[in-house]
Design brief:
It is a single chain. The chain is an alpha+beta fold and 274 residues long. The protein has helices spanning 9-26, 38-41, 62-76, 93-97, 125-134, 152-172, 180-199, 205-215, 221-229, 234-237, 244-267; strands at 30-35, 50-56, 86-92, 106-109, 116-119, 136-139. The chain has two domains: 9-145, 2-Layer Sandwich (Beta Polymerase, domain 2), CATH 3.30.460.10; 152-267. It has eleven helices and six strands. A six-stranded mixed β-sheet has the order 5-4-3-2-1-6. The N and C termini lie far apart (52 Å).
Length: 274
């Protein structure tokens, strides 16, 4: 099998199986399959999620959804750890072409899940930018032919809105995030988002963490380091309570990063929507 989109042989086996199976289910409705996220930007390791998108010519039919549900259930049951770390969405071609993001829900496989749900999780400008600029084609045309350029002003506006809106949810309903998985995910996500806001392009969690340690108040370095070390085994960590001290520090970190983002936006005349 000459199919080596990643350095990990077992992951390549899962991806090969996945792409062939998706093509069988979708037939003529299949356009392409692509890696995005850390495996696209090149800053991955054995603990990284495997983020993907599949592009279709048209919306999925009920029969196609049923076929994909069965396929993802079978893949999840493979005796290969990578099979439980796939995450991604099915984009109709015309939806992927849109450069406004939006609240359109797509058929989405959450990390650690065996079945698709409808979610707007991947329907973002950040995902489109990564797919266009760095997407790894598993099958289909070059991703640059499927996604139009993303204006940096729109990208920054979306990042700002995500930082603010998600932060409001975290800070008003913290109990739903009080486990080790979310505690680490929140810290690394906010490091990455502030990095992306400053640089005007999406980076990886590793790049965000390194940048945050080098550029933010040094008092946050310990929390960031402990967070990075807590990444392995998310299936277990999501069932474990967060360290109480680190969780309170995480909430404070969210407030701090949001304030830093507002300072940056005002200094660079980026409109802050209500």
């Amino acid at each position: 099998m000459d199919f080596t989109p990643t350095p990990f042989h077992d992951l390549n086996r899962v991806l090969h199986d996945s792409v062939e199976s998706v093509q069988m289910v979708l037939g003529a409705n299949f356009v392409g399959a692509y890696l995005q996220g850390s495996f696209a930007v090149g800053d991955f390791d054995r603990h990284s999620d495997v983020d993907f998108i599949v592009v279709t010519e048209n919306d999925l039919s009920n029969d196609e959804v049923d076929g994909l549900q069965a396929m993802h259930g079978r893949l999840y049951s493979l005796d290969i750890a990578w099979a439980q770390h796939l995450e991604g969405s099915y984009f109709p071609r015309r939806v992927l072409r849109q450069t406004s993001g939006g609240d359109r829900r797509l058929w989405y496989l959450d990390h650690g899940s065996r079945s698709l749900i409808q979610s707007d999780h991947c329907n973002t400008l950040v995902v489109r930018w990564v797919v266009r600029e760095f997407g790894v084609a598993l099958a289909g045309p070059a991703p640059v032919t499927l996604v139009d350029p993303i204006p940096v002003t729109a990208l920054r506006a979306e990042i700002l809105a995500t930082m603010r809106d998600w932060g409001r949810t975290i800070l008003t309903r913290p109990d739903q995030y009080n486990n080790r998985f979310y505690q680490t995910f929140i810290v690394l996500s906010y490091c990455r988002m502030l990095h992306d806001l400053h640089h005007g392009f999406p980076g990886s969690k590793r790049a965000g963490a390194d940048w945050a340690k080098a550029n933010l108040d040094p008092s946050w370095a310990g929390l960031i380091d402990r967070t990075w070390d807590g990444r392995p085994n998310p299936a277990l960590s999501v069932r474990q309570p967060a360290d109480p001290t680190d969780f309170q520090a995480t909430l404070a970190f969210v407030r701090y990063i949001i304030n830093e983002s507002v300072i940056y936006a005002r200094a660079h005349h980026i409109e802050l929507t209500s």
